[in-house]
């Protein structure tokens, strides 16, 4: 898999740090870690990520709304991480969704699925 420029949207600092560390161990680059909808939208325009890993619910705003706004400018591969996959599936039936808690192997599969390669 080629090195990806990854943006993380996660409002829990501990989870965001652990996720960023794992993404870097996998050989990818973290271009932004944002905790709010507005910051994520601004960062995506600047950083131009190859992949977004998105917590569906943020303390300030929504990861779902941020993705909708970001992808209006063009497609960006992404997947959602959530504690409530059922509700998100009803809202976004076509989305790639990773249910919290998850294993590293699940994350690797989600990345591969989002960028269109086999894991």
Automatic annotation (TrEMBL):
Superkingdom of origin organism: Bacteria
Annotated Pfam families: Response_reg (PF00072)
Annotated positions of the 4-aspartylphosphate modification: 55
Entries under InterPro entries matching the protein: CheY-like_superfamily, Sig_transdc_resp-reg_receiver
UniProt entry keywords in alphabetical sequence: Phosphoprotein
SMART domains: REC
GO BP term, example: phosphorelay signal transduction system
Positions of the Response regulatory domain: 5-115
Record PROSITE patterns: RESPONSE_REGULATORY (PS50110)
Annotated protein name in UniProt: Response regulator
Originating species: Rhodoblastus acidophilus
């Amino acid at each position: 898999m080629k090195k990806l420029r990854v943006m993380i949207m996660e409002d829990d600092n501990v989870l965001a740090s652990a996720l960023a560390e794992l993404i870097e161990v996998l050989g990818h680059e973290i271009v932004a870690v944002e905790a709010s909808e507005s910051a994520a939208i601004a960062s995506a325009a600047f950083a131009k990520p190859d992949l977004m890993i998105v917590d569906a619910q943020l303390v300030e705003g929504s990861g779902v709304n941020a993705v909708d706004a970001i992808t209006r400018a063009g497609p960006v591969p992404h997947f959602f991480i959530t504690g409530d996959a059922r509700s998100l599936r009803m809202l976004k039936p076509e989305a790639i969704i990773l249910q919290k808690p998850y294993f590293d192997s699940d994350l690797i599969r989600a990345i591969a699925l989002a960028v269109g390669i086999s894991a």
